[in-house]
Specification:
The complex is a heterodimer of chains A (189) and B (589).
Chain A lengths: L2 H4 L4 H6 L18 H15 L3 H5 L17 H14 L8 E6 L6 E4 L6 H12 L14 E6 L5 E3 L5 H7 L2 E6 H6 L5
Parallel strand pairs in A: 1-5
Antiparallel strand pairs in A: 1-2, 3-4, 3-5
Chain B lengths: L14 H7 L4 H6 L14 H7 L2 E4 L7 H7 L5 E5 L19 H10 L5 E5 L5 H10 L5 E5 L2 E4 H10 L5 E5 L2 E3 L18 E3 L9 H9 L6 E3 L9 H7 L5 E3 L9 H12 L6 E3 L13 H4 L4 E4 L6 H8 L7 E5 L3 H11 L5 E5 L16 H10 L5 E6 L4 H10 L5 E6 L14 H10 L5 E3 L6 H10 L5 E5 L5 H9 L6 E5 L6 H5 L1 H5 L3 E10 H10 L3 E6 L16 E9 L12 E3 L1
Parallel strand pairs in B: 1-2, 2-3, 3-4, 4-6, 5-7, 6-8, 8-9, 9-10, 10-11, 11-12, 12-13, 13-14, 14-15, 15-16, 16-17, 17-18, 18-19, 19-20
Antiparallel strand pairs in B: 20-22, 21-22, 21-23
Helix pairs in contact in B: 4-5, 5-6, 6-7, 9-10, 12-13, 13-14, 14-15, 15-16, 16-17, 17-18
The chains are: A alpha+beta (189), B alpha/beta (589).
GO cellular component, one term (chain A): nucleus
Organism (chain A): Ananas comosus
Protein name (chain A): Auxin-responsive protein
C-alpha cells in the first residue's frame, strides 16, 4: 500500500472522527479562522512526506470554534460554562446538557441536546460517540440497545415517543440499555 | 533491561531503576502538602528506609505493576496513583484508553490492608472497585478522587456504609453517574468522624435534612463542599450546624432576593469565624454577595471561577479580602478588577483567571481582560508565584515586565485563546516574552505556552529552564529543532505534552535516553510517523510507545507502512512492560 494513500492529507477527515460533542458529519460554519492555522501545520508536516499539490488544494478552512480540546479548559468546567451561558446571555443559545451512560461502558459522555434537529441526528450522534452501529431502531429487527431517558418526574422513558421539543425540555439524563433489559422492564432505571 | 511480566524479577533491579520511577516531584509536594514523595538512592542504609516508607506516589499507573509497588513498600499507609495523560482533561485521549483502578485496588487490598489514605487522579474507578476498597481497608481515612469516571453514587453508598473511620471524602471534578440519590443516608448514625466532605461535582439534589444531620454529628468537620444543586435558602441551616468550618464550597448562590433570606445568610456567615476558604458561588446574584463581607478579611482562598458576576461586584468583594493567598476568578474581573487585587491583596500567591467566553460566541463586546491585568498583579503582588491566565491578547513587553517583576514564579501558564496570536502591537512572535520568563524565573517548574512562537523560544527554554518539570506546548514552533532544544536541555523535565506542532519524531530518536528520565511524553497532531515510533520502541525497550488511532476500519498497525502518520503518541517509561488492558485504539509498538 502506498504511503500517499495511507495518509490522506486531509485534516478534516481526522477531525471528523475525533471525539467531539458536535453532531457527526462536518458542519462547516462560517469561518473566521485563518487558513494558516490548518495549513501551517500541514505544510511543515507535509514537507517530510512530499505530498502532491493536489492534496494541498484539498485544504479547507476548518470551523474555528471546533478545535478539539482548545482552549485547554477541563471538560468539567466547560460543561458548567455552557449550561451557565444561557443565564449570562439571554438568547436562545442556552445548551441543554445531559449525561449519557451506556451499559458496559465505564465512562459517561455529556451532550447538548439543543444542537440536534431531531431524533435521527441524536441517534447517529450517539452511535458515533459510543462506537456502536445498532442504535437506530429498525422495525423489522430486534434492537440490541434501547435508548432511555429520565424525565422531569423521575420516570425512565423510551426515547422517541414524544415530540422532539417536548423531549429535550423534559430530559434530565439518558441511558443506553442493552436491548434484553429494556424489553424486560418498561420504565425502571 | 526489561521486566518481563509480573513476578519477582523486579526485585533484582538495582535501586537506580526505582529512582527513576519513584522520584521527587516538588510540584506535587506543594499541592498535596501532606505528601512526601520517594527518592531511592543506592546507598547503604536506604534499603531500610524503603521498608518503612509510609507514603507512596505513583505518577503513572502503568509505570510499575501494582503488585510490585505494593511489595516494594510494605509499610505504606498512604498511596496516590495517577492514570490518564493530562490531555485527557481536554478530551484528547479516547475514553477507553485505560487508567483502570481495579488492578491497583486489588493489589493494595492484598498487600496494604492497613491503608489509610487513597488518592486517585484521572483513573477509571468502577463501583465494584469502590465496594472492594470499602470492604478491604478498615482503616481508610481519606478517599480522594479527582477527574475520575466509571463510578456512580451507588459506589459512594458503599463507601459511606462501610468506611467507619472515614475522615475525608473528596470528590473533585469527577463524572459520576447518579443513580442512587440517597447515598448520603448510608453513613450510619454512629458515624461521626468526617473532617472533609466535598461533593461539588455531583449534579443531583442531595437531601438537605440528611446532610444536616450528618454535619451536625460530625464536630470535626472542617471542609464542606456542596454542589450546585444545593439551594441558597438552606445554606444558613448548614452553617449554623458547622460554624467551625475552615473551608466552604457553597451551592448555587442565586435565589430570589428577599431581606429575610439575606439576613439569615449574613448572620450565618458572620458566625463562621474560622472560615479561610470559599468556593462554589455558582450563578451568583449580586444582591446576595454582601452577606459574605463579614468573612472576607479572614479568607486566604477564594474560588469565584463559577460565579458569573461582573467586575464592579467582584471588585467590591475582592477588595475586602486583604489576606487572600489564592484567587480563582473569571475574566469578568477585567483589568480594572485585577488592578484592585494588586493593591488590596498583597499576600496573593496564586492567581487563575478563566475565560467566560472561550469560543467567542457571546454577541456582546468581549470582557476587557488583557495583558494589563497580568502586569498589574505581577507588579503589585510580591508573593505571586503561580499564574494561570486566559486572555485574548499579549505583548512581549508585558511578559518581559512580568518576568522582571516576578523572578519568583514557579508556575506560569498563559493561554491566549486564539492559536498563533502574535504580539498585538508589534506583530512579532512571543518568543522574546517567554524567553524572558524562563531566563528570569529560575525556579520555574511548570510552563504552558501559547500565541505565535518559533523555534527560538524552545532554544531559550532548553537552555535556561533547569527546574522545569512540566511543559505544555500547542500550535507552536517551526521545525524539529524546537523539540530537539527541549529534549536536549531542560534537565528536570518530567512531563512533556505537545499538540498541533510541526515536530517529527527525529528529535525523539536523537534524545531517546532523555525519554527514560521523564515520566511521559504526549504528542498529538504533530508530524510523527509510524516508522520513527518503531525505531524508538526498538531502541528503548524500557519505554512503552503507544500509538493511538480512534478511527475504525483501518488496517492493523502491524501492516501499516513506516510513513503512516501517527495522530496521537504517548510514550512513557515503565518497569511493567506492555500493559495487558490496552483498548483497540491503542497499539504498543
Amino acid at each position: 500500500m502506498k504511503g500517499a494513500t495511507c495518509y490522506k492529507n486531509d485534516l478534516e477527515n481526522l477531525r471528523a472522527t475525533e471525539l467531539t460533542l458536535r453532531p457527526p458529519g462536518i458542519d462547516v460554519e462560517e469561518v473566521i479562522r485563518s487558513a494558516s492555522i490548518a495549513t501551517k501545520c500541514k505544510k511543515r508536516a507535509l514537507s517530510e512526506k512530499k505530498e502532491t499539490d493536489e492534496n494541498e488544494q484539498a485544504t479547507e478552512p476548518v470551523a474555528k470554534a471546533q478545535i478539539v480540546g482548545w482552549p485547554p479548559i477541563r471538560a468539567y468546567r466547560m460543561n458548567s460554562f455552557r449550561s451557565r451561558k444561557s443565564l449570562v446571555v439571554d438568547d436562545n443559545n442556552g445548551g441543554i446538557y445531559v449525561k449519557v451512560s451506556m451499559d458496559g461502558v465505564p465512562y459517561l459522555r455529556k451532550i447538548d441536546l439543543k444542537i440536534y434537529e431531531g431524533y435521527e441526528e441524536l441517534w447517529r450522534a450517539l452511535e458515533d460517540m459510543f462506537k456502536c452501529s445498532s442504535l437506530v431502531p429498525v422495525n423489522y429487527d430486534e434492537p440490541k440497545y434501547a435508548i432511555t431517558y429520565e424525565d422531569k418526574d423521575g420516570d425512565w422513558m423510551l426515547v422517541g415517543d414524544v415530540p422532539w421539543e417536548m423531549f429535550i425540555s423534559s430530559c434530565k439524563r439518558m441511558r443506553i440499555m442493552k436491548g434484553c433489559e429494556a424489553r424486560g422492564q418498561s420504565s425502571s432505571a | 533491561m526489561r521486566c518481563g511480566g509480573g513476578g519477582p524479577a523486579w526485585a533484582m533491579f538495582p535501586d537506580e531503576v526505582w529512582e527513576q520511577v519513584f522520584s521527587f516531584l516538588g510540584s506535587d509536594a506543594d499541592r498535596n502538602a501532606a505528601f512526601v514523595t520517594i527518592v531511592l538512592v543506592p546507598r547503604l542504609g536506604r534499603r531500610a528506609e524503603r521498608r518503612s516508607r509510609r507514603r507512596v506516589f505513583v505518577g503513572n499507573c502503568y509505570a510499575v505493576a501494582p503488585a510490585a509497588a505494593v511489595a516494594r513498600f510494605p509499610e505504606a499507609r498512604a498511596a496516590a496513583v495517577k492514570g490518564k495523560p493530562h490531555f485527557a482533561d481536554f478530551n484528547l485521549v479516547p475514553g477507553d484508553w485505560g487508567g483502570g483502578a481495579d488492578a491497583w485496588v486489588a493489589a493494595m487490598a492484598e498487600g496494604w490492608p492497613l491503608l489509610e489514605e487513597l488518592r486517585l487522579k484521572r483513573m477509571v474507578v468502577s463501583d465494584d472497585c469502590l465496594e472492594a476498597l470499602a470492604r478491604a481497608f478498615k482503616n481508610l481515612r481519606v478517599l480522594a478522587l479527582t477527574s475520575c469516571d466509571g463510578f456512580s453514587t451507588a459506589g459512594l453508598a458503599a463507601i459511606a456504609a462501610h468506611c467507619r473511620n472515614l475522615r475525608e471524602l473528596d470528590l473533585q471534578e469527577n463524572m459520576i453517574e447518579e443513580n442512587c440519590s440517597h447515598w448520603l443516608s448510608h453513613f450510619p448514625e454512629s458515624f461521626t468522624s468526617l473532617v472533609n466532605l466535598n461533593i461539588a461535582c455531583l449534579e443531583g439534589e442531595v437531601n438537605v435534612s440528611v446532610l444536616e444531620r450528618l454535619v451536625s454529628r460530625c464536630p470535626n468537620l472542617k471542609t464542606l463542599g456542596l454542589n450546585q444543586a444545593f439551594p441558597l435558602d438552606k445554606l444558613n441551616i448548614l452553617l449554623r450546624r458547622a460554624p467551625q468550618l475552615i473551608d466552604l464550597g457553597t451551592g448555587r448562590f442565586d435565589a430570589e432576593y428577599y431581606p429575610e433570606l439575606f439576613h439569615k445568610l449574613e448572620s450565618a456567615f458572620s458566625g463562621c469565624k474560622s472560615l479561610r476558604g470559599l468556593s462554589g458561588i455558582w450563578e451568583a446574584v449580586p444582591a446576595h454577595l454582601p452577606a459574605l463581607y463579614s468573612i472576607c478579611e479572614g479568607l486566604t482562598s477564594l474560588n469565584l471561577s463559577y460565579a458569573t458576576i461582573q467586575s464592579p461586584d467582584l471588585i467590591k468583594l475582592v477588595s475586602q479580602c486583604k489576606n487572600l493567598q489564592k484567587l480563582w476568578v473569571m475574566d469578568f474581573i477585567e483589568d480594572a478588577g485585577l488592578a484592585v487585587v494588586a493593591s488590596s491583596c498583597k499576600l496573593l500567591q496564586e492567581l487563575r483567571v478563566f475565560p467566560s467566553d472561550p469560543y467567542g460566541e457571546v454577541a456582546q463586546p468581549p470582557v476587557s481582560l488583557t495583558e494589563r491585568g497580568l502586569i498589574a498583579v505581577s507588579t503589585g503582588c510580591p508573593m505571586l508565584h503561580s499564574v494561570l491566565y486566559f486572555c485574548r491578547q499579549m505583548t512581549n513587553s508585558a511578559l518581559i515586565t512580568v518576568a522582571h517583576n516576578r523572578p519568583n514564579l514557579i508556575r506560569f501558564r498563559l493561554c491566549i485563546l486564539e492559536p498563533h496570536t502574535p504580539d498585538y502591537l508589534t506583530f512579532q512572535p512571543l518568543d522574546a516574552g517567554f524567553s524572558a520568563i524562563v531566563e528570569s524565573c529560575r525556579d520555574l517548574c511548570r510552563l504552558s505556552l501559547s500565541g505565535l512562537l518559533t523555534d527560538r523560544v524552545f532554544k531559550s527554554i532548553g537552555a535556561y529552564a533547569d527546574c522545569l518539570e512540566m511543559l505544555s506546548v500547542a500550535f507552536a514552533g517551526d521545525s524539529d529543532a524546537g523539540l530537539h532544544y527541549i529534549l536536549s536541555g531542560c534537565k528536570s523535565l518530567k512531563k512533556l505534552e505537545i499538540r498541533d506542532c510541526p515536530f517529527g519524531a527525529k528529535p525523539l530518536l536523537a534524545n531517546a535516553a532523555k525519554l527514560e528520565t521523564m515520566r511521559s511524553l504526549w504528542m498529538s497532531s504533530c508530524a510523527v510517523t509510524l516508522g520513527a515510533c518503531r525505531l524508538l520502541a526498538q531502541k528503548m525497550p524500557q519505554l512503552n510507545v503507544e500509538v493511538i488511532d480512534e478511527r475504525g476500519g483501518r488496517p492493523s498497525w502491524e501492516l501499516r507502512p513506516n510513513d503512516c502518520p501517527v495522530e496521537k503518541l504517548f510514550v512513557y517509561r515503565t518497569l511493567a512492560g506492555r500493559r495487558a488492558d490496552k483498548p483497540p485504539c491503542v497499539w504498543i509498538v
